[in-house]
UniProtKB/TrEMBL annotation:
Top-level taxon of origin: Bacteria
Pfam family, one: Glyoxalase
Organism: Ktedonosporobacter rubrisoli
Protein name: VOC family protein
Residue span, VOC domain: 5-124
Length: 126
């Protein structure tokens, strides 16, 4: 039924203007706004819908993963832009002082958007 349908994902935020600034300026994504909704235009032709929700509750899981060639470089660049990385110290989820988890899979670091949704950068070398 949906085999040839171009599905897309979406998520809510508490403040559309903050989201537009964060995703467009801080992360450098192409962002468009129409009818009170944001569209994130991701490389490869993927679009993600961002919509305001008055009683928004941040996602408790990673909603977007950004693959990068060099996680150290990506983390440093985002920190320079004011992004704060999450520090975890749990049995199966431990990050270093920069917020990078270096064991158990690809190197990955998590951060939040202004609405508290969890995002990540993960290293996928070319």
């Amino acid at each position: 039924m949906f085999k040839n349908t171009k599905a897309f994902s979406g998520f809510s935020v508490s403040n559309l203007a903050e989201a537009k600034q964060f995703y467009g300026q801080t992360l450098g994504l192409e962002v468009s706004e129409e009818h009170g909704l944001l569209t994130l235009h991701i490389a490869g032709g993927t679009n993600i819908l961002v919509y305001p929700k008055e009683n928004h509750t941040p996602a408790t899981f990673t909603i977007l993963n950004f693959p990068v060639d060099d996680i150290e470089q990506a983390v440093d660049a985002l920190v320079e832009r004011g992004v704060r990385f999450e520090i975890y110290n749990e049995e199966y989820l431990a990050t270093d002082e920069k917020g990078i988890m270096r064991s158990g899979g690809p190197k990955i670091a998590w951060f939040k958007d202004p609405a508290g949704n969890i995002l990540s950068v993960l290293e996928e070398p070319a």
